[in-house]
Specification:
The chain is of the alpha+beta class. The chain has a domain of 109 residues. The chain has a three-stranded antiparallel β-sheet with strand order 5-4-6, with helices on one face.
């Protein structure tokens, strides 16, 4: 009976030791970081506290993280038409206003007297169609490819009452990459 009593007394002592070791180690991990994000360690003293990257942790400058090598610029396209049948277009302009101005100038060069912007598109393709007979005037479409833009313009031309619609213009305003 004395042996069973000794074993029962050993178990609580072992449990207490395990709990104490766990409690001793727990605060050490919290103090080590010093409220710094992962990959950094605390620096400073006497009330001034900061964090610095741990050398070799990958968080310091020049660690091989990807850096941009340039910037993408959105480009615009526009189609201008006049009441006397002339038309002009422009693509690859950095602003909507520049695309509109250039398309109106191209329309005037082709003989138009009162050219006005009828359609604009940005970072995509634009198309214009006219019917050979029937109702409707110029129809437009914009999409991610020239073929889809033409298809949309043809569908609009037909739905507006046009018969025998023809694509008269299709082009794309692609984004341009500028390297640093």
């Amino acid at each position: 009976m004395a042996c069973a009593l000794e074993r029962n007394q050993e178990r609580p002592v072992i449990r207490v030791l395990i709990v104490l070791v766990g409690l001793v180690l727990l605060p050490v991990t919290g103090i080590a970081e010093g409220r710094c994000p992962p990959g950094q360690y605390p620096i400073g003293g006497q009330g001034v506290q900061g964090c610095a990257p741990i050398p070799g942790s990958g968080s310091e400058a020049g660690s091989g993280s990807p850096r941009p090598t340039g910037v993408w610029h959105k480009t615009w396209g526009a189609i201008a038409i006049s009441t006397d049948g002339a038309a002009g277009a422009s693509t690859g302009k950095l602003s909507k206003a520049d695309a509109a101005k250039d398309s109106e100038a191209n329309c005037a060069k082709s003989g138009g007297r009162s050219c006005k912007v009828a359609f604009t598109f940005k970072n995509q393709c634009g198309a214009a169609t006219v019917p050979t007979s029937g109702d409707g005037g110029t129809s437009f479409g914009r999409a991610e490819t020239k073929e889809k833009a033409e298809e949309l313009a043809m569908d609009r031309c037909a739905s507006d009452g046009g018969i025998g619609c023809n694509v008269i213009y299709a082009a794309c305003a692609q984004p341009e990459f500028e390297s640093y």
